[in-house]
Automatic annotation (TrEMBL):
Keywords: DNA-binding, Transcription, Transcription regulation. PANTHER family: ARAC-FAMILY TRANSCRIPTIONAL REGULATOR, HTH-TYPE TRANSCRIPTIONAL REGULATOR RV1931C. Gene3D superfamilies: 3.40.50.880, Homeodomain-like (1.10.10.60). This is GlxA family transcriptional regulator.
Amino acid sequence: MSSAAPWSDEVPRVHRIAVVAVPPVTAFDLAIPDVVFGSAEVDGRPAYQVRICTVEPGPVASTSSLQVVVPHGLDALASADTVLVTGSASRADADGRILAALRAAADRGARMASICTGAFVLAQAGVLDGHSATTYWVQAGALAHRFPEVRVVPQALFVDDGPVLTSAGLTAGIDLCLHMVRTDHGAAVANAVARLAAVSAVREGGQGQVLPSPVAAADGSSLAATRAWALARLAEPLTLAELAAHAGVSVRTLNRRFQAETGTTPLQWLLTQRVEQARELLESTDLAVERVADRSGFVTADSLRRHLLQRIGMTPRAYRAHFARPQPRSGPNPPVPERS
């Protein structure tokens, strides 16, 4: 069966993402790239074209009771900028035609990625050899055992190893896709997608997959309200004592519950949110770097510079030069409104 034309002409051409469905597919994983990348816009235009493809377009077996129909064939991989393999139960015997297409895409320099057990398919194709990678934690040991050339990071939410990116299962696939949007187009675009999808904008790849208490307690003891309170006060020098006081708990209890709910400490979470705020301000305003640092809670430009370099390998000025959007002007040199 032949596929429909996999790509439409765009002027200017946008980033093409071929999502490979390897039967039997995990339907949830298959939906993630279409939702995340399909929601990303830059200057009011779609940032990506997404095409879901497989060996024989049409109905594809899934791991659930859902019926999955895939419209495109593997020819979509030939000109895709990113190739992403989603979860599959084919952990040892993926179709050879898929493996050949994946190797060809990697050889010509496409960005290669996987969600959940899609890592097994990339590994079968040899794409992960010599790279760090992760997968769903239940299957991490099997991946390491079957593919000793792959450096498996069993607990990471996602791993970005240059041209190859892999994620754990289910919602970690959302984290990986948001990370790719952030890498391509900056924090403001990625955060807008996260808001549309009603998910957390930032979860670092090194965060653990398994949290002691992933579901908020029914007694209302979740720290979500305290996190929201802190987000509105990132410019202030928040302390553990202040966060604990807002939550009505001791500092020790705050640390324990925060780790259980988010997989990280309160101070590391604050640092991540401040970096994200600074990135948005650098992209969306022409505030001086010193003012961006102040509004983000870093106090000094040197502190902001140090943390940006540690997190993303770019200085504030370099980040702004790469990701800043043109600012609308209603007249000559209009003032930038101050945040109340």
